[in-house]
Specification:
The complex is a heterotrimer.
Chain A: H1 3-26, H2 28-31, H3 61-96, H4 100-114, H5 117-127, H6 132-141, H7 145-160, H8 162-169, H9 174-210, H10 221-230, H11 240-243, H12 245-269
Chain B: E1 3-14, E2 17-29, E3 34-38, H1 45-52, E4 61-68, E5 71-72, H2 78-84, E6 89-92, H3 96-99, H4 106-118, H5 122-135, H6 141-144, H7 154-166, E7 172-176, H8 184-197, E8 202-207, H9 210-216, E9 219-224, E10 227-233, H10 234-239, H11 244-251, H12 286-290, E11 296-299, E12 302-304
Parallel strand pairs in B: 3-8, 3-9, 6-7, 7-8
Antiparallel strand pairs in B: 1-2, 1-4, 4-5, 9-10, 10-12, 11-12
Chain C: H1 2-27, H2 32-37, H3 49-58, H4 65-77, H5 91-126, H6 131-144, H7 148-162, H8 181-219, H9 222-229, H10 234-271, H11 277-287, H12 290-318, H13 320-323
Residues 45-46, 94, 176-177 of chain B line the site of magnesium ion.
Chain lengths: 281, 309, 325
């Protein structure tokens, strides 16, 4: 198999996984057999009524996991889109204005990247009330730096190339130059960064929820996993198979899908581009 | 005859198409002779050098024969080839700044090839490396041997590259653009050095600088779009060039008024029909567009690829 | 010059971390007093105005902020991180009791996964496009997509519960008496294997990919061609020329991955009920033991920043070009 073929296979596989998950998230109310907050007999084994059984308070686990897809993906995509926009904007500013402002932005990026953000996120989450909105805000605050750094260095490279200068000589305004010449070159990098950040948030959010800091109402996969984990002697019964395994596998599948797509994209754009896949949880 | 290349083709298959970087080249080098290989950037000079030393990736298509002292280099095993590389045939790569390992001391980069081919122990090899640095006129060589490449100037790095190539006393040297990017004084120093150290050796000198070729070469081959277009003793090339490309090339010399050849060299993927030079040739005729001219010996040892010669 | 710049930079970062820690309870919604006394911030404490004033004075919370800041710094310099609400002990003492287990866990995992990831990444890149490379790439990407706590839980279920090969958790057998130190060491090792394996498998992907990428760009470098032109063997070129160059970006990222690993320990310690700092953090979060949470935050952050500093120094040592700047 050649490198290109492997890339295409991985990329399509990743896209396939993501397409399924996104469909499930969007059509959760239509797909889920029950409302995840309705209660039935608790701790039921899987049956034709409850394909994945019920949990300790009697919620249908399958419905819980299906709605969990919504929560997990919503957090991941909201955070990464916002963080990417902020990062791109700051990266453009930092790369384009070489003065004090640019310097300041890059120093903030350095500092943010040195402080272990997951610990700070855990601490902040512990101080705040448990809600998905608080989590989203916290993740955004700590999610834009890598994008800013990458965009800035790309802008610096582009700026040193002649066509930005020649555009300037022809009288283009700064805004026009950024819009027409720089942004189109930056977009592919940002797309890769978006995917990396999304997979990062999926894992981080799952981890935070596993520590019991997730939203108890809008339950993500991590929260479901945590409730199962905290159930006394869960592994002594078989319940882990339908209560822990499904949310656990969903988290892994999402990350895998994102990783494959990100990897394939990255190889296609630039085989030498380097990103660290951070596994924080 | 120390090296005899016949009908050599080197093709790369790329997503954009087949790159015919070396396309049917015949060239030979005698003992103690310096042959210059001249041509514009991208015409395939480096690829030819790398083909001779078999340093291209294994997916490359190479056809023809390269006879080095009775062995066909394209037929021997990789292990046998490794024994020849650096020992009998040394390639001094282009661009010394990137061709020296930035995190290895300069002395060690020379010593390792000595240890490998001459079986010297660490200490003796290190001493020999220092001697080599001295022989390429690097001042205080024993101290410089312990420094890293970034501590050397461009000219000094080039000297290190030469010392590295000469370390095992090879019989054939392939020097790729050894004067590129150097200023005039340094350039003439390097020319002088090369002249001195290769007096007893055969050398293929790759360059796009005619003044360097004039100073060093016995014979000169001009390369255009993957093939040779003229090959003759150096004097004849300069005094009686026959191919329009050669004339154009000479015309672009500073003292001849820097008249560049009009147009651009063709892509090696989409070569023009007929003579490859015809789109840029001032006296192209109808036949030049249709037929690909062969290499003809118009005088003793003077070969030209042109219908008009 | 380089060292001094770097040192100043890291001192600033530590100052920022200390300040974040200072402002956390004061800037968060809720009563700062509650964060010290341990009442649920959503349910304000019932106290008379005088009692409240007294408490505020006791913790210095009635003073102006700058003065509080100075007090905080003075206390910190004496190693005083306040008192745990739950344990009623100094935070520092609680952390130090747990520290050895976390160090054992992260240390063991790091000395294994770093070299292993580097080795696998280098081998993979050197065999680029071949079956060996594709196979290891896909395997490692797949395994790495499991969060450590999912992986750890599965390990507990299979290797500890189903197969009975390892204990279910903890760092040693509770209440055991050992005949000799060797027996104790073996017991600790027995408890260590599963959590360490979890950490390694969950974290090796980052180092592997980084090394593979880095190695791929080194393979195309001119000096590798140069080494080939000397007739050196592939193995020799890989070991002597390629690896050291490819390691440079790894070293810059080493601190980052150590940071990931330190955080990963929190999840693994929870899964295995391993009594280190991570488990302590988790328990403190459940109990909303804010002084302890903050203490652990400080401790881990400063540890990671120090790791960064050391990595920077190592870089200078590895790359002769930097030290001359
Ligand atoms: N490994 C390769 N794969 C594909 N094309 C290559 C490769 N190496 C060189 N080429 C192409 O071959 C042509 C000749 O290159 P080169 O020999 O380096 O030129 P020069 O005469 O300047 O030394 C160029 O067009 C280059 O793009
Ligand atoms: Mg060249």
């Amino acid at each position: 198999m050649t490198g290109v073929k492997v890339n295409n296979v991985l990329g399509s596989l990743g896209l396939g996984i993501l397409a399924i998950l996104i469909t499930v998230a969007i059509f959760a109310p239509q797909i889920a057999p029950y409302d995840p907050h309705d209660t039935y007999k608790w701790m039921e084994r899987p049956s034709s009524e409850h394909l994945l059984g019920t949990n300790d308070v009697g919620n249908d686990i399958l419905s819980e996991v299906i709605y969990g897809t919504r929560v997990s993906l919503f957090i991941a995509f909201t955070v990464s889109i916002t963080a990417i926009i902020i990062g791109t904007a700051l990266g453009l500013i930092a790369g384009y204005s070489s003065g004090v402002l640019g310097f300041l932005i890059m120093r903030i990026v350095d500092i943010f990247l040195t402080i272990p953000r997951m610990v700070l996120i855990i601490v902040l989450a512990a101080f705040l009330t448990q809600s998905i909105w608080n989590l989203i805000v916290i993740f955004i605050i700590f999610g834009w730096m890598m994008t800013a750094r990458i965009v800035r260095s790309e802008v610096l490279t582009l700026r040193s190339q002649y066509y930005v200068d020649s555009a300037k000589m022809l009288g283009g305004s700064d805004r026009y130059i950024i819009w027409r010449h720089i942004l189109p070159n930056v977009v592919p990098l940002v797309v890769v960064q978006f995917i990396m950040e999304a997979s990062h948030v999926i894992i981080a959010e799952a981890g935070i929820s596993f520590l019991g800091l997730g939203d108890p109402v809008a339950r993500s996969w991590g929260t479901i996993f945590n409730y199962a984990f905290e159930y006394p002697n869960i592994i002594l019964s078989d319940a882990w198979m339908w209560w822990m395994l499904p949310p656990g596998l969903c988290i892994a599948a999402t990350v895998l899908g994102l990783t494959f797509v990100g990897y394939a994209l990255e190889e296609r754009l630039n085989p030498k581009l380097k990103t660290v896949v951070g596994m924080e949880a | 005859m120390i090296l005899k290349i016949s009908k050599l083709k080197t093709h790369f298959s790329t997503p954009d198409g087949l790159v015919r970087a070396v396309d049917t080249i015949d060239l030979s080098i005698r003992e103690r002779e310096t042959v210059g290989l001249i041509g514009e950037t991208g015409c395939g000079k480096t690829v030819l050098g790398l083909t001779i030393t078999r340093l291209l990736q294994s997916s490359t298509t190479v056809k023809g024969t390269i006879i080095y002292k009775e062995t066909n280099l394209l037929k021997i095993s990789e292990t046998e080839m490794r024994r020849i590389r650096g020992d009998e045939i040394a390639m001094i790569l282009q661009n010394p700044t990137t061709s020296l390992n930035p995190v290895m001391r300069v002395g060690e980069q020379i010593a390792e090839v000595i240890r490998l081919h001459q079986g010297l122990n660490k200490k003796d090899a290190a001493e020999k490396a220092i001697k080599m640095l001295g022989s390429v006129r690097i001042p205080s060589p024993s101290q410089r041997a312990n420094e890293y490449p970034h501590e050397f100037s461009g000219g000094m790095k080039q000297r290190v590259m030469i010392a590295m190539g000469l370390a095992c006393n090879p019989s054939l040297i392939i020097a790729d653009e050894p004067t590129k990017g150097l200023d005039v004084t340094i350039k003439s120093q390097i020319i002088k050095l090369l002249k001195e150290v290769t007096k007893e050796k055969a050398m293929l000198l790759i360059t796009h600088d005619l003044s360097v070729a004039r100073a060093l070469c016995d014979r000169i081959a001009l390369m255009y779009a993957g093939e040779l277009v003229e090959c003759a003793p150096a004097g004849e090339i300069f005094d009686a060039p026959r191919h329009p490309y050669t004339r154009g090339f000479l015309g672009s010399l500073p003292r001849n008024g820097l008249v560049p050849i009009p147009g651009m060299s063709p892509s090696l993927i989409n070569l023009p029909q007929g003579c490859r030079f015809h789109p840029r040739c001032a006296n192209a005729k109808a036949i030049c567009k249709r037929k690909h001219p062969g290499m003809t010996e118009i005088e003793d040892g003077h070969f030209v690829r042109c219908f008009d010669a | 010059m380089h060292y001094i710049n770097k040192l100043a930079y890291y001192l600033v970062i530590i100052l920022i971390i200390l300040s974040i820690n200072f402002f956390l309870p004061r800037a968060m919604p809720g009563d700062p007093l509650a964060y010290v006394l341990g009442e649920n911030p959503d349910m304000p404490i019932r106290m008379t105005e005088e009692e409240r004033e007294m408490k505020l004075a006791e913790y210095g919370l009635d003073k102006p902020l700058p003065e509080q800041y100075v007090d905080y710094m003075i206390k910190l310099s004496k190693g005083d991180l306040g008192h745990s609400i739950y344990y009623k002990n100094p935070v520092m003492d609680e952390i130090l009791i747990r520290l050895k287990w976390t160090l054992l866990l992260t240390g063991t995992a790091t000395v294994i996964y770093m070299p292993l990831g580097i080795f696998l990444g280098a081998e993979s890149a050197w065999a680029r496009g071949k079956k060996k490379d594709t196979l290891s790439l896909i395997t490692i990407l797949t395994v790495s997509s499991f969060p450590s706590f999912v992986l750890g839980t599965l390990f507990v279920i299979f290797f500890a519960f189903k197969l009975g090969l390892f204990p279910l958790g903890c760092a040693n057998t509770i209440g055991a008496t050992y005949a000799n130190p060797l027996e104790e060491a073996l017991d600790i090792l027995h408890h260590l294997i599963l959590p360490v394996a979890t950490l390694i498998i969950a974290h090796i992907g980052g180092t592997y990919l980084l090394m593979r990428n880095s190695m791929l760009s080194v393979i195309g470098a001119d000096y590798i061609l140069s080494a080939r032109a000397k007739g050196l063997s592939e193995r020799y070129i890989l070991n002597r020329h390629a690896i050291r160059n490819a390691l440079l970006p790894i070293v810059t990222m080493a601190a980052l991955t150590i940071g990931f690993m330190t955080v990963g320990t929190i999840f693994v310690e929870k899964v295995f009920a391993y009594p280190g700092i991570g488990l302590l953090l988790y328990d403190s979060v459940l109990r909303r033991d804010y002084p302890l949470i903050q203490g652990i935050f400080l401790f881990i952050s400063i540890f990671v920043v120090l790791a960064n500093f050391i990595a920077d120094m190592a870089y200078v040592w590895l790359d002769p070009r930097v030290s001359d700047e």
